[in-house]
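**Polypeptide and fold**
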Amino acid sequence: MSLSARLLGSLAPWRAAPAWHIALSGGLDSTVLLHLLAGLAQREALPPLCAIHIHHGLQAAADAWPAHCRELCAALSVPLHIEHVQVAPGASLERAARDARYGAFATALGVDEVLLTAQHRDDQAETLLFRLLRGAGVQGLSAMPAQRVLGAGQLVRPLLNCSRAELQAYATAHRLRWVDDPSNTDERFSRNYLRRQVLPALLSRWPQAGANMARSAAYLSEAGQLLDELAQQDLAGAEVAAELAWLPVPSLALPALRGLGEARQRNALRYWLRPFTTMPDSGHWAGWQALREAAADASPVWRLAEGELRRGDERLWWLSGDWLRTPPRLAQPVCAEQIVQLPGNGHVQIRGALPAGNWQLAYRQGGEQMLLAGRGRRDLKRVLNERRLPTFVRDRLPLLLLDGQVMALANLSGLHGPADGRWQLHWQPPTSDQGLS
């Protein structure tokens, strides 16, 4: 079957998409993908095509690539959009450039639109080998998915069943011109070393190694999907709503996880934590065991790359963003219906009519007491214990004071205002997401 026919078959599920965007670097692989699609568009009813070139500005040679892409797209009558990005400095230039590139792609995609990239079977084998050497688990060893969500649309890799040799033969037969990235020869980069030294040696001994590794990645992808389905089943009993419905922090009921074996606990937590943080390595999972086994009155913390997992009231709570920073001390005069922004801690509002007096917002400092109907004065610490408020919330829970005396605790039913409901203290806490806090 020809490359063109195989490409059309792999793209069948997305024929009704509003648009197809082609990630065009100007190199061999993306040039072949563009040429194939432009040819198919002449005889098939395809979604509108356009190309996107990302200019990273990381090397002098790249300055000539946008002009090359313009000439190529003009010859094929495919619109081209060129996006300039800034690459954030960091330990891995490759990763930073990739993050900038895919961030620009995500922004460019409209709802249900598709980004087509030109990774092929040899790239898949390279990715599998690279991740194997880094000690990846099943999810990592499934390598590059054929499709995934990107922004408001989908990222699709329609050439994963094609070899680089096939793309090279197609380019030669059609006399295509492409650019060569000088950085691809720099063997200080691990992927380049694998591509130029390790894979050729493997292929000289086992000619089918590339195809076999790509097939293994597909098997591992299926295994990963099955593990995800198992995690969803195991999490069903743990994702019951917390009593504190006003607390916008992801959480799980711990007893449901305790009933699972160790491996299934880790699998469920990996699945649940995946949207929040990169996964810990195998040695770091001792932090989970310590969190799980800590005494009931302890406040254990498991610190991960992008946040931390806390335990409280037999629940696991994921904290990130503002929740990891102590808000500045609060001593804020307040009046009724006023919305007060709390630095690093959301905002509060008093709903209803406050009596005259010296009203003030504050946080707990220790030693406070509160007058409770029929119970007299009670230490605030004991009151919060009775309400089973997680410890990470207590020092940022807004208090309403009158002449220095605690009159209300935000959001806690029966304690957030007088019994007659004349006024209530409402708090909108920060989210547990850095982008939304």
